[in-house]
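Our preliminary data section would be incomplete without showing what the modeling component actually yields. Below, a chain of 232 amino acids is followed by its predicted structure, encoded as tokens that our downstream tools consume directly.
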Amino acid sequence: MRTAIASLSFLALAACGGPEQAEGPSAPEEVAETPAADAGAVKIPATIADTLTIICGKPFSQDATAGTLAEIFGAENVVPETIDGAEGEKVNVTAIYPQDRSRRIQVTFANEEERTVLTSVSIRGEVSEWTGPGGINLGDGVETVERLNGKPFTLSGFGWDHGGFVTDWHGGKLSQIAPGCRTTVRFNIPPDVQTEDAVLGESPHSSIEPAIRKASAYVEEIMISWMQEHEY
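Predicted structure:
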């Protein structure tokens, strides 16, 4: 998204008083009759399916399964797929809202056949109704992500299968959004921007480098992933 799920918030109502009344004789207090509440006036999101935010928690907790996701999003919207990965690899995923480009997300499981033990949730492309952790959206620029992280970060160079990934958040707010759960962001360069050789290749780059800023890189993919035992 030039820009685009938390990943995926809750609404709150606030009331404020009017101006103070002028001094004068006090009028007898009248008890106003409370009007009936309009149940359809304000919708308070009850589940992640309403908020469309990718978070490290239910329903995307580590113990999530295809079955638990189907209970929330509907069985017809939770579909197993095989997609193309890096370097020609085929990857088994579970797509949620598979035919809706604006709401599609992809989920992976440690046990692919049973589709149990959730390992990752991701959104990819240019536009999405989903918001990632910390308020990241598809299409956000480098400076926006720096602000959300609270400090500069390191990303890999562009032009290869693993290019554009953030490799180090340097302890910022996005480095580990929950115990055992991390945020991965991948940037891309717009096709109409001339790419400098300085940002190409496997070498790491700081987000504050002038060449990176000049490239107008934008967020193309947002993923949360639960670390497995061997990664701790």
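Confidence is low (pLDDT under 50) at residues 1-46. The chain has one domain: 48-231. Preliminary results of this kind motivate Aim 1 of the renewal.
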